[in-house]
What does this fold into?
Amino acid sequence: MKNLNKIIELNKEVDKLKKENEKLKKENESLKKKTLTIVDDVALQKIVVDNTFYDADDIPLTGCDNLTHLK
It folds into this structure.
């Protein structure tokens, strides 16, 4: 009987850990999406000029034939 009670306790703990694992997986996915959004936002602020990355405020305005925005 003692072993049965221990098994029941362990099964409850396993269930608890499974629920916590699912919660953490969802939180992880949410954080991944936020990270990708931040990376996308930063990428949109960068501009490539002749294969060189510049911040939008630092674009050289003369002698640039090849301006492309990153997406």
